[in-house]
Specification:
Length: about 500
C-alpha cells in the first residue's frame, strides 16, 4: 500500500480520482479506450466517486473546449512549455494538457496523416505522464495531493504511475490502478530515452521502467500500479500466456491476484435502438418488425440488392488482430450461402485492397466503406442481421455489445471479452432460450466459414432467429455493474470501503 494518510478519512466520503487517458469520447476517439474513458466518470459517480479526466490537447480536443481556464504552466515539460487547462465535459471535470510542441499537429493522436507513428511518441506521452503525476500529487498547486487515486489507461498513460512512484519531487505516492485495454500496444522504446525522462536512476530496474533492455511505458505502469485491471475476466486470464501477454505474461502472472478483469459497459444513452437519432426507424425487442425499415435503408446506402439471406455487417479496424485478413476469402462463402455483407472500417492497406476485390467479385452483394463514421456504425447495427467479430484476441470488444443491444446477432471468435459476453446458440442454449449469438474457436477460413453457415441456417428459421435477437437485446451490459466494480476497487485501495 502506498504511503497515503487514509486512516482518518470517514467512510462514505467522495473520492477524487484522476483518470489519465490519451482519448475519451466525445472529444477524441480511435477505439474502445475512448468509449470507456468517456463513460467511466458517469459510471462511478453514483458510488461517491468524483472523476476528473485528463487528456492531451490535440487540435480535436482544443477545438471543442469551452470556457477553459489555465490553472498551471510548465516552462520546461520534457523540454517544452505547456499549460494545464481546466474545464468541464458534461457533468464532469476535465483537464487538458496544452503543449503545442507535442500535440498541436495534424493527423491522429499517435500517427501522422499517412498513418505513420510519430517519432517522438515517447516524449509526447512521457510529458503527458509527467504532467499527470504532477497534477495528481499536488506539485501543480503546491497544496498537497489534489486527488485520492490515479487511474491510468494503456501505455500512453503508463509513465504517470512511474513518475508517481519514483519522482523525488512528489511528496506522496498515490494509490493507483492501471487498465490494459489492449496488451498489443506496449509503448516500448530504446533505452537511450531513459536519460531524457527525468526519472531517478532507481527507476531503471526490472521492477521499474526497464523492459527487455528498453523502456516500456505499459510495463512501467503495470509494475507501479497497486492493481492492474483489464477489460474482461477472460482476457485477464489469457494475458498470463505468451500468445496474449506478448512478452509481459511473466509480469502479469507474478502480479497474481492484483490483476483483475472488469467488463466494459456500453453507454445506453448513446446506444439505445429505441431512441437512436441515427436510425431510419427506432425499434425495441417487442417491435422487432420495425427493424426492417433500417435494413432496407442500409441496403440502399451500401448499394446492395435485396435478398432472403441475412445481411452481415462488420464495423472494425481492418487488422490481423480483428481477423480481417481472413474475411475477403470467406466473403465468397458468405455470398454463396445467400448472405450479403456491408463493411465499415479502415486499417491495413493490403486488407483494404482484398476487400475491394471481394466487393468487385460480388457487386450488389458486398458493399465496402473505408473510413470512420460513427453515425453509419449505428445505422449498421440497427439494420444488419448479424455482426461478424472474428478477432484473434479481444480484450473486451464493444461492437458485439452494440450488436446485442440492437438485435444484430454477434458471430464471434471465442476469446477474451467476446467469450464473456455472447452465449453461443448451441442446442442446449437454444432449448433454454438463452442463446444470444454464435461463437467459434480459433480464427481461420474454416472456422469463420463454419460460423457463417450456422448463422445462415439459424436465420432461415425465423422463430429461432427472433428468439436469439430478443435474448441478445435482453442482455444487460450497461455500466451499472462495472461502475460499481471500479468504485469498490478505488475504495479498497484508499481504505474507504463503505
Ligand atoms: P478496438 O478498440 O480494439 O478497435 P472495440 O470493439 O473495443 O475495438 O472498439 C471499437 C470502437 O470503435 C467501437 O465503438 C466501434 O463501433 C468503433 N469503430 C471501429 N471502427 C469504426 C469505423 N470505421 N467507424 C465507426 N466506428 C468504428
Amino acid at each position: 500500500m502506498p504511503d497515503y494518510p487514509v486512516d482518518d478519512r470517514p467512510t462514505g466520503m467522495t473520492l477524487k480520482v484522476l483518470s489519465v487517458a490519451s482519448e475519451a469520447v466525445p472529444l477524441v476517439k480511435t477505439g474502445g479506450l475512448a468509449d470507456v474513458a468517456g463513460a467511466l466518470p458517469t459510471a462511478v459517480a453514483p458510488h461517491g466517486i468524483s472523476m476528473t479526466t485528463m487528456l492531451p490537447g490535440y487540435p480535436a480536443v482544443r477545438q471543442k473546449l469551452k470556457r477553459a481556464r489555465t490553472v498551471h504552466a510548465w516552462d520546461d515539460l520534457l523540454g517544452e512549455p505547456a499549460r494545464l487547462l481546466a474545464t468541464r465535459i458534461g457533468d464532469h471535470p476535465l483537464l487538458v494538457l496544452d503543449a503545442p510542441a507535442f500535440f498541436d499537429r495534424p493527423g491522429g493522436p499517435y500517427a501522422d496523416p499517412h498513418g505513420t507513428d510519430w517519432d517522438d511518441n515517447w516524449r509526447r506521452f512521457a510529458a503527458f505522464g509527467r504532467a499527470a503525476a504532477d497534477v495528481a500529487g499536488g506539485a501543480v498547486t503546491g497544496k498537497g495531493a489534489q486527488f485520492d487515486l490515479i487511474h491510468a489507461h494503456d501505455w500512453q498513460a503508463g509513465l504517470t504511475l512511474a513518475y508517481n512512484r519514483f519522482a523525488p519531487w512528489a511528496e506522496i505516492s498515490l494509490p493507483s490502478v492501471m487498465t490494459i485495454h489492449n496488451m498489443a500496444f506496449q509503448g516500448y522504446f530504446d533505452a537511450r530515452i531513459f536519460r531524457s525522462l527525468g526519472l531517478p536512476r532507481s527507476a531503471w530496474a526490472i521492477d521499474g521502467v526497464e523492459t527487455y533492455g528498453g523502456v516500456g511505458f505499459l510495463k512501467a505502469g503495470l509494475q507501479a500500479a497497486d492493481v492492474v485491471t483489464t477489460v474482461s475476466p477472460s482476457y485477464a486470464i489469457e494475458i498470463r500466456r505468451p500468445e496474449f501477454g506478448m512478452g509481459l505474461e511473466g509480469l502479469i502472472a507474478a502480479r497474481g491476484d492484483n490483476v483483475i478483469g472488469i467488463l466494459n459497459g456500453i453507454d445506453s444513452h448513446e446506444w439505445n435502438p429505441g431512441h437512436d437519432p441515427a436510425l431510419a426507424r427506432p425499434f425495441s425487442a417487442r417491435k422487432l418488425s420495425a427493424r426492417r425499415a433500417n435494413k432496407r435503408a442500409l441496403e440502399a446506402e451500401f448499394g446492395l440488392e435485396r435478398g432472403d439471406g441475412p445481411l452481415f455487417i462488420v464495423v472494425s479496424r481492418l487488422t490481423w488482430q480483428k481477423g480481417m485478413d481472413v474475411l475477403p476469402e470467406v466473403a465468397d462463402h458468405l455470398v454463396g450461402l445467400g448472405g450479403r455483407l456491408a463493411l465499415l472500417g479502415s486499417g491495413d492497406p493490403a486488407i483494404e485492397r482484398e476487400l475491394h476485390k471481394a466487393a468487385a467479385r460480388h457487386p450488389g452483394r458486398i458493399g465496402i466503406r473505408i473510413g470512420y463514421d460513427e453515425a453509419l456504425s449505428h445505422r449498421m447495427q440497427g439494420g444488419g442481421d448479424a455482426i461478424l467479430v472474428p478477432s484473434r484476441f479481444e480484450p473486451c470488444g464493444l461492437t458485439q455489445l452494440y450488436g446485442l443491444a440492437y438485435g444484430c446477432v454477434p458471430v464471434v471468435a471465442r476469446t477474451g471479452g467476446l467469450a464473456d459476453t455472447v452465449i453461443d446458440a448451441n442446442t442446449a442454449a437454444l432449448a433454454q432460450g438463452v442463446a444470444t449469438g454464435i461463437q467459434f474457436t480459433g480464427v481461420s477460413y474454416d472456422t469463420l466459414a463454419g460460423a457463417i453457415s450456422r448463422a445462415v441456417a439459424l436465420y432461415r428459421v425465423p422463430a429461432l432467429w427472433q428468439q436469439i435477437q430478443k435474448s441478445a437485446m435482453a442482455s444487460d451490459f450497461s455500466w451499472a455493474v462495472s461502475g460499481k466494480a471500479y468504485a469498490d476497487l478505488y475504495r479498497r485501495l484508499t481504505g474507504t470501503e463503505q
